[in-house]
Sequence to fold (217 residues):
Amino acid sequence: MNADSPIVTQPDQSPLRRLFHPIREECPAQAAPLLRRLANWDVTSARHSQRVGAACRSFGMFLSLSEDDLERLTLAGFLHDIGKLSTPRAILTKDGRLTDDEYQEIKNHSNAGADLLMEEGFSQDIVSITRYHHEWWNGRGYPEGLSGMEIPFESRVIGIVDAWDAISARRAYHRQRTDFLALSEIRSHAGTQFDPDLAPAFIDYSVQRLAEQRRVA
Ligand SMILES: [Fe+2]
Fold:
């Protein structure tokens, strides 16, 4: 197979099929082997990674990024949580509140992912974006407490898309949560957790997408 060709899968046909063939068509070829490993370790993390990767590409197009920038953002979006391969499965799948030690284990995934991607020969850009995707605009994130523009642009984008996906996923269990409520959480953390320019841009993008969906429905 050509290294540049996308992974092509049949459309999902059943929950069982999705479980065993979870790699999305938009997944860059370089990311697919690692995402397959992640799917075998924790399918929920792999699906989240793929949704974030696809949404990063779509939001990046809305931002009119160049093709190179879009490729880098998309690849990093698909791989941002690959360090969860190092997180014990019992913690990833635990129901209920995590202990402080368990939360610390989870937090190790950004450095673990960056180190793994370095070993696997990914570019320094992709390694850094992964390492810093949990940094906060106000410096209160991890692993290094970078702030503002010290945080790579793509990490700041992934931070927003990652949070939006986590809120949307929770919504499945709390049906009263609306897409608009998820977006209001993003807005309320603009300038603290999220880049104060990118957060409203993401809201504009999402509202546009919601309006398009309603027109089609
Ligand atoms: Fe993460």
About this structure: Residues 43-62 form the longest helix (20 residues).
